[in-house]
Amino acid sequence: MKAPDESVAQARLFHGWVVVWAVHVVLFTIFSAAYSFSSFFTALEAEFAASRAGVSFAFGLAVFLYFLVGAFAGVVADRTHVRHVVSAGIIALALGLYLSSHVNSLIAFYICFGLAIGIGVGCAYVPSIAAVQPWFVRRRATAAGIASSGIGLATLVTPFLAVKCIEALGWRATLQWLALAVLVLGLAAALQLEKSPQARGLHADGDAQSPHGNLATGGMGWAEAVRSQTFVLFFLTMLGTGIIQFMPFVHLARHALDRGFAAETGALLLGLIGLGSFVGRLVMTRLADRHGRREAYAAMFGLMALSFAWWLISLALPASLLALSLFAILFGLGYGGFVGIAPPLAMGYFGGRSLSGLIGLLYLGAGTGTLFAPTFAGWAYDTTGSYALPLVTGVACNLVAMALALRMPRA
User: Fold this and answer.
1) Residue 99: is its pLDDT beyond 90?
2) Residue range 11-405, CATH number
3) How many CA atoms lie within 13 A of 152 on its CB side?
4) pLDDT category, 214, cuts 50, 70, 90?
5) Which range, of 171-175, 182-186, 256-260, 321-325, averages the lowest pLDDT?
6) Distance of alpha carbon 281 from alpha carbon 286, whole angstroms
7) Tens of pLDDT along 138-156?
8) Closest C-alpha to 123, from 198, 29, 226
9) Quick one: DSSP state of residue 133?
10) How far is CA 350 from CA 2, 219, 332, in A?
């Protein structure tokens, strides 16, 4: 048995951690582009004289497309090389953002922004997060949490920066600078990606020998996994939470304006979602490694249900930044933990052989719901003047997802 200090020193040098931090940068880059959308909301409303539902559809369509593309990109990454697929996504994302800055109609924005996020994030997200899983066994959820915390950091930092840039430069120039940042940071990180430890003469966790074999090629085939009851339940949990999960990313900042707060406050609230998400990915994934990944996964839906219930209650209270901040942090914790735990949970169930494709297909469940969520919330507000209906939906859907998760096998 190795001494504790020897194990720590080895872990610091293990190439798996290079992959983890490269994925962290990739996810920070692509989700900075995606989650900065709310900062552009008011400018797009004014530019195209659009309703909330109309503007919201741009985000819903974009996210649906990236989940749809991710299902196919994952299969391609399983059969080729993760580095190539992710790099192609980064280039497509940067090009689409640049083209979005030149559109003259909302329909054109749907096409350019939708394809930018759809192809770019779709090709980069699923293959990169799947690449982390074969490098670890004992600390798999922790490693996945660190990698995916790039999403939380993007949500924390980018909306506020985008607001300031829009005020100084306008929304079109801001998109152009964002495109350049995506291209430079994204490609630099993508070149460090590798899915198989064996390709570098290594084993999972940096061990000299591994009883697990080649984790990147072992496990279920795609068809066998998809037919299993575990996969069906997993998919349904994704669909359940996806029906409403992306509503806050589009509507929380706009709701803050309705309640009399400044645009910077809306960006701050999105940043608090990012902070909660960042902490959730780091802390909840550690707890999952220690106390059970399935149980932790189910608990995240409970946290999101609680957060939507609190936002619903706050509608009846005087406008309060503290109340909205509490929602943002609670939702961020649940959302971040959910995203951080799902990939290692899938690896435990199905193995690494077809993991990218399977994760992509699972996330298609969330994407199907996401096509509905932002537009539904915008329609509800346009029709009733309130977000109460989507918030009730958020509570119910996440409670159903939690119940389904608890029927999945322990992992």
Assistant:
1) yes
2) 1.20.1250.20
3) 29
4) low
5) 256-260
6) 8
7) 888 788 888 888 887 887 7
8) 29
9) G
10) 30, 6, 27
DSSP secondary structure letters along 16-64: HHHHHHHHHHHHHHHHHHHHTHHHHHHHHHHHHT--HHHHHHHHHHHHH
Contact 133, 215 (CB under 8 A): yes
Please, which pLDDT band fits residue 1 given cuts at 50, 70 and 90? very low
For residues 371, 381, 309 and 32, what is the CA-based torsion angle, rounded to 10 degrees? 50
211 vs 50: CA distance, rounded Å:
58
Amino acid at 268: L
Cβ atoms within 10 A of the Cβ of 191, count?
A: 11
pLDDT in tens, 280-306: 888 888 888 888 889 999 999 999 999
Query: Tokens 């009733």 — which residue?
Result: 384
Q: What is the pTM of this model?
A: 0.72
Q: Is 292 left (phi over 0), alpha (psi -120 to 50) or beta?
A: left
What tokens appear for 4 in the block? 């504790």
Average pLDDT across the chain, whole number: 85
What's the rounded Cα separation, in Å, for the pair 333 and 342?
Answer: 14
- 200-208: long-range contacts (C-beta < 8 A, 24 or more apart)? 200/15, 202/14, 202/15, 202/16, 204/16, 204/134, 204/135, 204/136, 204/137, 205/11, 205/14, 205/16, 205/135, 205/136, 205/137, 205/138, 205/139, 206/10, 206/11, 206/13, 206/14, 206/16
